């Protein structure tokens, strides 16, 4: 399923800036960054549970925000992209 993970981490303190880096690195492990604090992640239910648990341990729920948008398996008709950074299918093989 395609899950959109978005976050807003308070970076006014050194610990906030550290949390931001940790959250970003965790999201990179599960998907692709499509905007500064937005990741598209093609995950199964187990992976979603794992990444959600890990991210909730990292953030400060008093000052930070974390959102999961569950787009499901039929997401291709639900996503429209315009402008820079061309869109691609996150489930296609990655050729380097």
Question: What would you say this structure looks like, in words?
Answer:
This protein is an alpha+beta fold and 96 residues long. It contains 2 helices and 4 strands. Strands 2-3-1-4 form a 4-stranded antiparallel sheet, covered by helices on one side. Strand 2 and strand 3 form a beta hairpin. Helix 1 packs antiparallel against helix 2. The longest helix is centred in the first third of the chain and has 15 residues. It is globular, with a radius of gyration of 14 Å.
Order of helices and strands: EHEEHE
Oligomer designation: single chain
Strand percent estimate: 25-35%
Can you tell me the overall shape?
Answer: globular
Say how many strands there are.
4
The strands making up the biggest β-sheet line up spatially as 2-3-1-4
* N- to C-terminal distance: 24 Å
Poorly predicted segments: none
**Rounded Rg:** 14 Å
Could you describe the largest sheet, including whether it forms a barrel? 4 strands, antiparallel
Structural class: alpha+beta
Helix content bin: 25-40%
Q: Number of helical segments?
A: 2
Mean pLDDT: 87
């Amino acid at each position: 399923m395609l899950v959109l993970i978005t976050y807003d981490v308070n970076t006014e303190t050194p610990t906030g800036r550290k949390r931001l880096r940790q959250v970003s690195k965790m999201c990179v492990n599960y998907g692709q960054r499509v905007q500064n604090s937005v990741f598209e992640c093609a995950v199964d239910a187990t992976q979603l549970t794992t990444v959600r648990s890990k991210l909730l341990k990292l953030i400060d729920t008093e000052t930070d925000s974390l959102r999961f948008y569950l787009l499901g398996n039929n997401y291709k008709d639900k996503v429209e992209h315009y402008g820079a950074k061309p869109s691609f299918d996150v489930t296609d093989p990655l050729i380097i």
